[in-house]
Design goal:
It contains eleven helices and twelve strands. By secondary structure, it is an alpha/beta fold. The chain has two domains: 115 residues, Quinolinate phosphoribosyl transferase, N-terminal domain (Aldehyde Oxidoreductase, domain 3, Alpha-Beta Complex), CATH 3.90.1170.20; 149 residues, Alpha-Beta Barrel (TIM Barrel). Strands 6-11-10-9-8-7 form a six-stranded parallel beta sheet. The chain has a four-stranded antiparallel beta sheet with strand order 3-5-1-12, covered by helices on one side. Strands 2-4 form a two-stranded antiparallel sheet.
Length: 282
């Protein structure tokens, strides 16, 4: 997270803040309040805190929501006090982290709510923003989801391009991966047809990913597998149909949209000067 904050601030402040410097030559004591303009699952408070602290260690966080908390519309999520010049320099980067990560957490929470009552896990994928994978996958967990592979070294996943290069022999690809991959890694393979499901079972795959299948075909595949492998569904899943897919009985549903298509959460920051009280005034 620290590296991501440093990179983001370097992008924004490599030439300084010429506007703020031109307008304010001296410190201005102020309070910055970040407001949620929609109901959301908040994520990125830790990143925002680090952003303000990296710009100016004297800034003080007065109040903050907890990462993973449900926040209602028009509620403050973070209040920071200190030099207004520092608040202005940190504002955009802090908001960018909060809007991106809260968007992911909120969308994940919506998917988890949609499948409530079914014993299925909602998973993310590796379709993440370059350099922000760890943070985006963290946001998925804050929304109630689970992480798929963090990297290509976390597990074997034989996809369509692997099979194309391996001659479309699903069973042989699974056996070869089992023989050559590091000991203890699970072998997962994509299956687009019932024939490929049978081949995956023949190859002793640990996880079979039913890719872009219709709900009726998924039901047939699940009957065919009969608890001999973990069943994952992926492809074409959205909020409108995820409950229908969950009802077919998979163990997990992986959704790339959690990270590659989550809309930014609506937050803004208001900065106001803190007026000194005059003694004796009422």
């Amino acid at each position: 997270m620290s590296a991501a904050v440093r990179t983001a601030l370097a992008e924004d402040l490599s030439g300084g803040d010429v506007t703020t410097s031109a307008l304010f030559s001296k410190p201005v004591r102020a309070r910055g309040t970040i407001i949620a303009h929609q109901a959301m699952t908040i994520a990125g408070i830790a990143a925002a805190r680090q952003t303000f602290r990296a710009v100016d260690a004297s800034l003080r966080v007065i109040r903050a929501a907890k990462d993973g908390a449900s926040v209602q519309r028009n509620r403050p999520v973070l209040v920071v006090e200190g030099d207004a010049r520092s608040l202005l320099m940190a504002e955009r980067v802090a908001l960018n982290f909060l809007q991106r990560l809260s968007g992911i957490a909120t969308l994940t929470a919506q998917f988890c709510k949609a499948v409530r009552g079914y014993r299925v896990k909602i998973l993310d994928t590796r379709k993440t923003t370059p350099g922000l994978r760890a943070m985006e996958k963290w946001a998925v967990t804050l929304g109630g989801g689970h992480n798929h592979r963090h990297s290509l070294g976390d597990g074997v996943l034989i996809k369509d391009n692997h099979l194309e290069l391996a001659g479309h022999d699903v069973a042989s690809a699974c056996r070869l991966a089992r023989k050559r991959a590091p000991r203890g890694l699970k072998i997962e393979v994509e299956a687009k047809t019932l024939g490929e499901v049978r081949a995956a079972l023949d190859g002793k795959a640990d996880i079979i990913l039913l890719d872009n299948m219709t709900a009726p075909t998924i039901r047939r595949a699940i009957k065919l597998i009969r608890h001999r492998a973990t069943i994952e569904i992926s492809g074409g899943v959205n909020l409108a149909n995820v409950r229908k897919f969950a009802a077919t009985g998979p163990d997990r549903i992986s959704i790339g949209a959690l990270t590659h298509s989550a809309p930014a959460a609506d937050l803004s920051m208001d900065i106001a000067p803190i007026r000194r009280r005059i003694r004796g005034s009422s």
